[in-house]
Model the fold of this input.
Amino acid sequence: MADEPSLIQYGRFIVEGMLAISTITLGILGYWQNSKVKSLEEDKEYLKKEIHKISGKVDPESDRKLLVQAAVSVQIMGINSLGPLHHCREEIIEFLADRKGTLHIILLNPRSDTFVLRQKREEDFSQRLLSEWRASVSILKDICLHTDGVVELRLRTDTPDRSLFIVDALDGLGDRSKMLINYYPEEAGTRGYSGAQFLAKFVMERDRDSMFKNVEYFARCWERAMPVSLDAAIEFAS
Done:
């Protein structure tokens, strides 16, 4: 009986030692698992970037398909955005006239130093960007003559690094929200359109982080940009 307390203490020591070893083991396993997950996430992001570099263009009809599906709002941002405005003229008119939608557009200010720098970056020696800008404003004017929908144009001066085509996200992202994203290439002498492009849908969980960031980006640019009427915009590039 005299040895009973020591046996109990010894047993307690063994149990506590086993618990300590278990805790350390679980900690090591948890650290290893977290490191592995982090490594896999980094690999995934790297592969996504590489895929974007290789994959080229999205379906050339994507902007038109998004406009046909748009219910409430369309937001467009680019240097001159001639592509979607020319390609989707009829769909934009239908969206504004029949669905009474709202169209917000941000273009680069053609009188800004940023526009001149962009021309140099793209090695535009023929005034191509300016000619496309004028064409975009003329198409917008033509669209407004065919509908009484809400069209708001703003001009930005900050350095452009992407174009955006966003559908049904003006009042917050939801299941109907979609966007086309075109990140401009860094290489000199290349057009913005030649950069990585992809289609994002809010219903796809993998796209949501990118969509939140780009909706916020558009909103910040919209707040900083200068509102201008279409008639005044035509004078800007004269």
Observations:
- The chain has a mean pLDDT of 86.
- The longest strand covers residues 102-108.
- Residues 58 and 198 are 6 Å apart (CA to CA).
- The two ends are 107 Å apart (CA to CA).
